[in-house]
Amino acid sequence: MNQLIQERLRARGPLLLIPDAVLLPEGVMELYAVVVSAGSFEAVGPTEELERAHPNLQALRLPGHLLMPGFVDSHHHLTQSFGAALAFGEPSEIFRRVWVPLEGALDEESAYVAAKLAALESLRGGFTTVTDAGTRADVDTDVVACAARDAGIRCVLGLICDDAHEGADSAAVLERAEKHLAAYGDDPLIHPSLAISIPEAATNATLHATGRLATEARAVVQMHVNEHLAAVERSLLRHGLRPLEHLHSIDALGPHLLAAHTTLLSPREVSLLADTGTAVSYNPVASAWKGNAVAPATTLAERGVRFGIGSDGTRGDGFRLADAAEFAQRLTYGLATGDSSCGAGWTWLEHATAGGADAVGLGGRTGTIGVGMAADFLLVDVSTPELALSRDLPWELVRRGNRDQISAVFVAGRLRLWHGLPVDWDGPALVRRAAALARTAVARAPITRAHPTSTAARAAATARPPAARTTTAHPRTQAGGIPAQNAPARNRSTTQ
């Protein structure tokens, strides 16, 4: 698409868009068009009907393009973007050694830039909504809201409400929670939510109170649940119940709860999720990168459990995330059972869009191309070698789609990204500033990594005799290959 089309797409008035096809809940519809007005879809239907119904609008034809819903990232940590390159191959509960120290080293500027950088990567990857689980940086949550708003992305913004640590003031925590939920009523892009790091990080009273407040505000409570084996074992020792079972025992499950990860689920816990309407964020790349198990998402889909697909800040590419969602199920469950379909493609596309919107509390507002829905959508070039010969486009979007095929990203009816670059702010300048700030933040954070960098690991491996290369353990290191024993021991939090 040329510059003239970009200029017309940036127009603030109503738009009649005629792509080659539109991706609707019932499938790919050819000879369909949409009318975008005041941030929403005013009309969706056959091209001829819309042209007759809107003779005052000059149709904008988009040959070679599919108009589809934007992806919804159901679990993210926007202020962790400076540490994304530190997360590869680390054992479980990485948050203790990397994320808590890193976010603790951020000031207001670096927190804003980190969040905006994450938002930019998400937009480039076709995400029109991100769900932030709350920052541990010592800054006001509104810093993250400003970054998302300035980037032009829709954001479900979590406020951490942990109160089980020594010195916590539960009344003050809940007062902040109420103010946060009321702070963005008129904001078209920011949707407040509450967050509990993990069940053991909050008192039972606060688990109840946050659930009540979120329900009243039609918001969600985000919580990491059944993610790591160590957390499951701590809950068994403390309560005689697994974390999700414990939440059920205190009546803290329900439609208001967005349980992140749930990689370690017993059959009974799957039933608890289905029976209570609790939503889940399935984060397949995080499982691969951070040493977790893989959530049984095909089982969740079969049982009717509400779930979205989240990046957990790993990489902001919606197509690769959908591919990972299917691929992880195939490797962990499909091959063992002879399930060669593993969701048939459409499962992962649906849960990356409409299902994700429902899970994060925005069902009926985004995630679908439909009349009255927010105009959060992508224009995807389907004339590329990967997609031009399509016979089953939803499957091929999951398997062969990538962010390079995204020509345009719209959020709330406005063109936000054109061929990977923001249209109304300087993306490359932000990346340069982020690179400088990240070096400083990582250098001063007491980060401890279990493995050296790939270059250091290769050097160590090639220096050993061949017989020893598969038996010698890597030295424990912190960021940059510094031995962990030299890392400061401060900032060792027990909560996510």
Shape: globular
Could you say which structural class the secondary elements and strand pairing correspond to?
alpha/beta
Number of strands: 20
Whole-Å distance between the termini? 44 Å
Radius of gyration: 23 Å
Please describe the biggest sheet, giving its number of strands, its sense, and whether it closes into a barrel: 9 strands, mixed
Low-confidence stretches: 471-494
- What number is the mean pLDDT? 91
The percent range for helix content is 25-40%
Work out the helix count.
Answer: 18
Determine the strand fraction and express it as a percent band.
Answer: 15-25%
Q: Can you walk through the features of this model?
A:
The structure is a single chain. This protein is α/β, with parallel strands linked by helices and 496 residues long. It has helices spanning 3-9, 47-53, 94-104, 108-124, 142-151, 170-182, 204-217, 229-239, 243-249, 267-276, 284-290, 297-303, 318-337, 346-351, 354-359, 393-400, 427-444, 454-463, and strands spanning 15-24, 27-30, 32-37, 40-46, 59-69, 71-76, 127-132, 154-160, 190-196, 221-225, 257-261, 279-282, 307-309, 377-381, 406-411, 414-418, 421-422, 448-449, 477-478, 482-483. The strands form three sheets. Strands 1, 2, 3, 4, 5, 14, 15, 16 and 17 form a nine-stranded mixed sheet that branches. An eight-stranded parallel sheet has the order 6-7-8-9-10-11-12-13. β9, α7 and β10 form a beta-alpha-beta unit. The two termini are 44 Å apart. Residues 471-494 have low confidence and may be disordered.
